[in-house]
Design brief:
alpha/beta; 2 domains; Spore Coat Polysaccharide Biosynthesis Protein SpsA, Chain A
Length: 308
């Protein structure tokens, strides 16, 4: 059996999928399988993968379009490897990705999930920017940060198969492109998440993937759902907020980051952060929680217009 199962949902990526698959086939680490899940995109994506003629590639066809959460869950169910590596059908993995992640997991048996840093690329594969998400190494800090925002580069992640199955962690449908955020919160409640600082993924930031489509077409629904995910993170980690505190939290720590516009708002935000830090004092990630709260507050102050 391969040590690594690379899960790759396929959906309307005929322009990029060959490059994505080749970047895995050309990995320095060779003990892997690719499980490609065809989500019925009505283009040539799955056919391109099937004609690549490599015994390490296994294509599973959904009976109809089911969505990325369903497809990833199917991949997890069919994974034969000790580790599961996530990969999107339009990204490019660095040649050393699997080797470094397997090495990290072997050296850190207490870690259940590892991600990495990534760079954004355009339609031609040219690097456009460096994305600093995915560089938090301390698992307790990752857990704290996830209460505010997603800090894991999803397509760079590798996880222990047994950990996911033992805790029955699954991707949830109808999350409007945020199924990965909810998934990582679940993982942080049951295990340890870390990151490798190396850039191991090149994410194709071209405005046509699922996240961008949802942001454009279902903006208000996504805002509400983002709030529900944060509520889940707060409650699951033992935090209880008053109605007023919830209003402040969800106003200033939402996905599109609405910051304080006057001194009164900033004062309410400071009171909230102080309360959150106080509640976290007796938790096993109190130090990391305090640091995350201070960071989020500092970001609000930095970009607010209070001191203009």
């Amino acid at each position: 059996m391969p040590r690594v199962s690379v899960i790759m949902p396929l959906y309307k990526a005929e322009k990029f999928v060959e490059s994505a698959v080749v970047s895995i086939l050309n990995q320095q680490y060779e003990d892997f399988e690719i499980i490609a899940i065809d989500d019925c995109g009505n283009d040539r994506t799955s056919r391109i993968v099937e004609t690549m003629n490599d015994k390490r590639i296994k294509v599973i066809h959904n009976d109809r379009n089911r969505g990325i959460a369903y497809s990833r869950n199917i991949g997890i169910e069919n994974a034969a490897g000790e580790f599961i590596a996530l990969m999107d059908d339009d990204d490019i993995a660095a040649p050393e990705r699997l080797a470094l992640e397997v090495e990290f997991m072997d050296m850190h048996p207490d870690i259940d999930v590892v991600g990495a840093a990534m760079k954004n690329i355009d339609i031609h594969g040219n690097i456009t920017s460096f994305n600093v998400t995915g560089v938090l190494h301390n698992p307790k800090r990752v857990r704290a940060e996830l209460i505010f925002q997603d800090c894991i580069s999803n397509g760079s992640a590798m996880m222990r198969t047994q950990f996911i199955r033992k805790n029955n962690i699954k991707y949830v449908d109808d999350m409007l492109g945020m199924e990965d955020y909810h998934f990582w919160i679940q993982c942080s409640l049951y295990g340890q998440i870390s990151n490798i600082p190396n850039v191991l993924l090149y994410w194709r930031n071209i405005g046509t993937n699922e996240t961008y489509r949802v942001k454009d077409n279902k903006t208000e629904q996504r805002k509400l759902l983002y709030k529900e995910i944060q509520k889940f993170a707060l409650k699951s980690n033992g935090f209880v907020l008053t109605q007023e505190e919830q209003e402040v939290f969800f106003k200033h720590f939402r996905e599109d980051k609405k910051y304080a516009s006057d001194a009164k708002e900033l004062k309410r935000l400071y009171a909230l952060v102080s309360s959150l830090i106080q509640q976290g004092n007796n938790m096993d990630f109190a130090i990391e929680w305090k640091a995350a709260c201070k960071k989020m507050f500092a970001e609000c102050v930095r970009v607010s217009r209070v001191f203009d």
